[in-house]
Amino acid sequence: MLARVAESIYWMSRQMERAENLSRFLEVTLNFILDQPENLVDPWEPLVQVTGDTQWYSEHYSRFDRPSVIHFLAFDDRYPNSMLSSLRYARENARGVRETLSSETFEQINDFYHFVNDAALQKVEPTADFFDQVRQQALLWNGILDGTMSHDIGWHFANFGRLIERADKTSRILDVKYFNLLPRVDDVGTAVDDIQWSALLLAISGFEAYRREHHLIDIEKVVDFFIFNRRFPRSILSCVAGADWSLSQIEDACSSAHPRSAKQASLGLRHRLANTNVKEVLAGGMHQFIDTLQLELNDIGEALNQDYFQVTLHA
Amino acid sequence: MSTESESSWQSQSQSSPGDTAADAHPHGPASQPLPRLIDYDPGEFFDELVNDRSIARPDTEVLVDMINRISGETLARRQRAIERAMYRMGITFTVYSDSRGTEKIMPFDIIPRVVPAILWHHIEAGLKQRIGALNRFLSDIYGPQNIVNDGVIPRELVDTSKDFRPQCMGLTPPNGVWCHITGTDLIRDSSGTVYVLEDNLRCPSGVSYVLQNRAVMKKNFPQLFDASRVRPVNDYPARLYNTLVSMAPEGVRNPVVAVLTPGVYNSAYYEHSFLAQQMGVELVEGRDLMVKDDRVYMRTTEGLQQVHVLYRRVDDMFLDPEVFREDSVLGVAGLMRAYRAGNIALANAPGTGIADDKVIYAYVPKMIDYYLGETPILENVPTYVCLDEDDRRHVLDNLDTLVVKAANESGGYGILIGPHATPAEREKFGELIRENPRNYIAQPTLSLSRVPTLVGESLEGRHVDLRPYILCRSPTDVDVIPGGLTRVALKRGSLVVNSSQGGGSKDTWVVANPGEETAST
Question: What ipTM does the predicted assembly reach?
């Protein structure tokens, strides 16, 4: 596969996943504020904090209020990681490799982009229902990708991209709780706390799966579910294991004399996750754990770039 | 001559409608009078679908019947649905004027243009003859140059053509074919005579619309298709692939074929990616390729992989910075070295543009005579060559009735349509011609044929041309795809059909003779 094509597929897939997760953040927050007593916690500022782009936000917005944060995450086309920007880049990447995608895959991206772009042009604040539709579109895209494309190396680059991105976003959703929780340690174990943790599980579509396994909300079990559940497709461990599997397939298909550093990095992370448990995470500080994890995910992405996208005469 | 052949196909198809028509149209035996297209006025133009009394021409009666039965409102609704589907499918071209790279679909008209079987056979024979002569001309002009030595074409014309590539002298492309893919523009005048308007021998575009227009029409009017006995076009990608494979360097068993595109910002990018996808080959940009030891390689995740055939959709001048424009980033340094060494085949060969210089075009009938010893089956539009003193005087005296064209422009640019121009515009063109007569030709303004076209919810005649696509594997192995791109000038009274100038397209239905394959078989 052309190196440029592999790179575009990888980014297309990451950007689609990014757009989906932003809509999950927003949908869940919009539902969540309906359930909580007024002014108990401010749900909007943490959404900005977990992006890691608080500084950019402060330069462009004056307040952390609902309309500003929603616009920032959903429709701001100046912000390169907004939902709209992500979809636009994903579509541009898809356009550049559309001959390698199934027609349905391209059409879904194209449709999805127009759906969100049209909504942005209407200049009214989107509702939870809108984000629900976005999530449906994203799920449809994932289904189409898996159901209409050969699971060849191109698909593995796409799968790798979405799982790396998903692992990162699952960790950031968990991090929202850190930002929310920190100012009010007293709330631990209260009904409000329950609502908040349930909302987080809903954000990764994991509420029902969690209930089936554990029935009641328990902080340790929720964190364990987020990070270490082997069966749930949006848990961090599950994403990392899947990404590592796709890397193995890619490496097998692209046999080469020189060593691949992405595989080593992803295997390293997978082992570390396998050898850590939730008690250690909580004892060491969940936020610190998530920070390190995000750095490791970035390293794997960078190594992939070096391994497969920079092909020179000597390769 | 053309007028004669024209009337002969008309009279033949009218005199033998019996069994054929009955077979084709179970609902309307041929003995019944041909239907009249209700509420449609063809005016004083030649209409492709009906005659001057709005009566269906042979082979169009099923379609005319259908249009009469469906309301304008329904047609308009279906057309909007088709246009939405095309937008959704991303069947678009990029509009340069917009910084965000806005995409538009080429406007689509739901009323197809029908080409009767017998007319098509005439066109097909004419195009095969023409491409045969043009390929001979290219071999000659980059070789011994007999045609100029013998004084059939003035040497000056060749030496001053912007599209003559001295870098290509002495090259011998595989199978003696320079131009593998041609899209020739045809028009019909008020008598219905078919003329060649121009030969597009470089990177003719539009075939993706032919295939997609057909796909959406089949989806929307399946029964109509069956009854109309339309010939299929959807094997074009397979034929194109075979053509490309046939060019592979000697001794290469499983050649690697790729389509070379300038990139996603090129206005025809959709077509490049569509053709690559339909053929199942890589779509590459210049930056994906490199040349080592006179061989061309793609950068892949598995390392470097050799490429043997490139369907290049990049202009000559950008192909190789070592040989053509130094500043080009769209091509590949060393590509021409690899080409000269015979390690890569290029379609079309570099240098083919010389043969569609609009002044050289005027000499194609002479080429047919010179190389083939035949009379042209399809005529050129009568053309005045401004380099010729008598022609020039005539052109300058009659700018108000002529169409003047610059030799090397395309896409509807560099054109003066005399009757529609202001005196100041005519003055300016007169000046341009006097300054650089080599660069201009002039042709009478022809009254292009029309096809009923949906305007709002009613039908009005709009002018059309036709671009059939010709694939040439060897001088004796030539395919003409039964159909082509019908471009339609959507503005009332306009003769300009280019998509960049507000033109649209229609599906083109070439009717099958008995025994010929149809789109539904």
Answer: 0.83
